[in-house]
Amino acid sequence: MPTDIGVSQLDDRWDEDKFQDDGLRGKVRRNYIKIAKVGIMLGFIVVALVVLSVFLPRVGVSVEIIERGGLIGSITAKISNNNLDSLNNVVVQFGENGIPQNLGNIGPFASVFSSPNPSELEFDRIILTANDGDVRVVKYRNQ
Fold it and tell me: Which of 25, 39, 94, 126 is most buried, by CB atoms within 10 Å?
């Protein structure tokens, strides 16, 4: 009668699935919950990168001059506030000697349109001041 039968069984490691009888030995088991969590986190990272790449170049106050020709030509200035803070006491002036137009307050991520007086249609620049002079933007007109 051999006496070393139990000794050879002790040489095996306990985590090698030698003692499982459920038939899963040799098959790869995947943790689908962990894979889903990693996928969701990667999705959030991709969305955050896309949002930042779109909004970071547009941060600040921008002034756009829109000119339309035709029978009745029109000139309009679009003032956009792409900041998290609101702009207070916004004043727009068409040209160096133009009449200042008070636009009031512009909230975050808001836009306001303003048109010059008929006597100021030949302006060379738009001067925007806000927050009691702390914010000043000058946009030149290309003629």
Answer: 94
Rounded to the nearest 10°, the torsion over CA 52, 58, 60, 63 is -170
Structure tokens at 132: 């009691």
User: Residue 110 is encoded by which pair of tokens?
Assistant: 């808001």
All domains in the chain, ordered by first residue: 5-55 (no CATH), 59-140 (2.60.40.10)
Sequence letter at residue 6: G
Helices (H) and strands (E) in the chain, counts: 2, 7
Mean pLDDT of the chain: 81
Going by C-alpha positions, the residue among 48, 131, 51, 129 that lies closest to residue 85 is: 131
48 is written with which tokens?
């955050």
pTM for the complete prediction? 0.60
| Closest C-alpha to 120, from 97, 92, 90, 91 | 97
Identify the CA nearest to 141 among candidates 94, 101, 103: 94
Q: What is the pLDDT of residues 37-95, one digit of tens each?
A: 999 999 999 999 998 888 777 778 888 888 887 777 788 999 998 888 888 999 999 98
Q: How far apart are CA 48 and CA 55, in angstroms?
A: 11
